[in-house]
Fold each of these.
Amino acid sequence: QVHLVESGGGLVQAGGSLRLSCASSGIIFSINAMGWYRQAPGKQRELVAVIASGGRTNYADSVKGRFTISRDNAKNTVYLQMNSLKPEDTAVYYCTAAKWDKQVVDYWGQGTQVTVSS
């Protein structure tokens, strides 16, 4: 059974930082592209960042230069370091896994709330 468990969300003031973690089990972590999506109230879910099995990264334009995605294959964990947070970053953040670096997501976590106050 596959589990993606996010942690690290919370309430932070604008300009602050948070680090999200996603611990995985039930998948061969090293062959999966791992990603972070987010969904704000009343908006569609959007890709925030993705890191391929080989380490190549891709970011949404809205977070480039502020967010950093990384992975630790030994710990089966992916991270999202979020700096210079803005109120518009407020959303539920979801961890994802895509086997063999497919663009279609195979698994989703349950989500963690990030709220940025102005």
Amino acid sequence: QVQLVESGGGLVQPGESLRLSCTASGSIYLIYVMGWYRQAPGKQRELVASISVGGSTNYVDSVKGRFAISKETNTVYLQMNSLKPEDTAVYYCKIEYATRTFARRDYWGQGTQVTVSS
């Protein structure tokens, strides 16, 4: 059993900042990748940013220079600066991990709403 607890979403004005966090717990041996995805109404879910166990990061072009992903142990953060209305979406945390029997699995969080509006 794996749990992901997300927090930090909300309503902000354009140009403001938010920080999302996601903490994983449960039957996890090792987390390979932690990432944030988002899905806006009527659009497909897209990868926003990810960070590997070694610290390598990856960002979608539209957030480069504005968002920063980081991690501590089993918690991943997404610092979102200079938010724009087009960043409005439900943000989902996802982990790729190994179980204690070394099976490789993915797990998604429930999502947190981010709304950027004046």
Amino acid sequence: QVQLVESGGGLVQAGGSLRLSCAASGSIFSINAMGWYRQAPGKQRELVAAITSGGRTNYADSVKGRFTISRDNAKNTVYLQMNSLKPEDTAIYYCNADVLANGGRYDNWGQGTQVTVSS
């Protein structure tokens, strides 16, 4: 069984920064893409940023230039550095990982971490 545990959310003023972390644990053979999604109240979950095992990144237009995704493959951990935060970034942020484990391929989600940006 694979678990994703997120940390780093919280309350911050507009213009501030936060760094989210997500560590994968369990009987992991390898991890392909990892990513961060978010869901604001009344809205659908949306992709924020993703990164392949080789380091290729992809960002939502709304966060380009402000957010940076990175990963440490040795630690099975993905990070999201969020700068110049805006009130519209307020949401629950979820970690996602495409994991090869126990002879199968699994799409794993974390429990979510709340990010609140005050104006």
Amino acid sequence: QVQLVESGGGLVQAGGSLRLSCATSGIFFTIKHMGWYRQPPGKQRELVATITNDGSTNYADSVKGRFAISRDNAKNTVYLQMNSLKPEDTGVYYCNVEAWYMTASDYWGQGTQVIVSS
């Protein structure tokens, strides 16, 4: 079993910053992809950023230049540094990992709320 625990969400004014963390624990050999997704109010879940185990990153166009994803493989933790936040960044942010044991499986965190006020 694999568990993801997210932290770092909250309420911030436009232009501010937040840092999300997602710690992975449980039984697995390795973690390949790690990423962050978000679900704005009334909308579908969307990709924010992903990072592979060799450090390659991918970002949604809407967050490029403002957000930075990183990971600490020793701690099995992925981070999302969010700067210059905008009201449209508001939503529930979910951590996602692809963990390998006998096979690859996708796991999701419980979600952390981010609210950006104008």
